[in-house]
Design goal:
two-stranded parallel ribbon; 4 helices; 68 residues; mainly alpha; 6% strand
Amino acid sequence: MSAIVLDTHATVWSLMDRSRLSAAARAAIEAAGKNHAPVFVPTISLVEITYLIEEGRLPAAVKTHHSR
């Protein structure tokens, strides 16, 4: 499988609540993990996540949460 790129929502949902991902997105992320394919998160998504945490719209645990 090829590398995949996650947007901000997919990054947060994959870490905190995978049920919010579409079946296709969930399958792609799981396949990447099984095949040791890279999963990229754009720098702007990390900036957005930091901003949302600072604004209290996301829990700080998002920054330290590890994928299952």
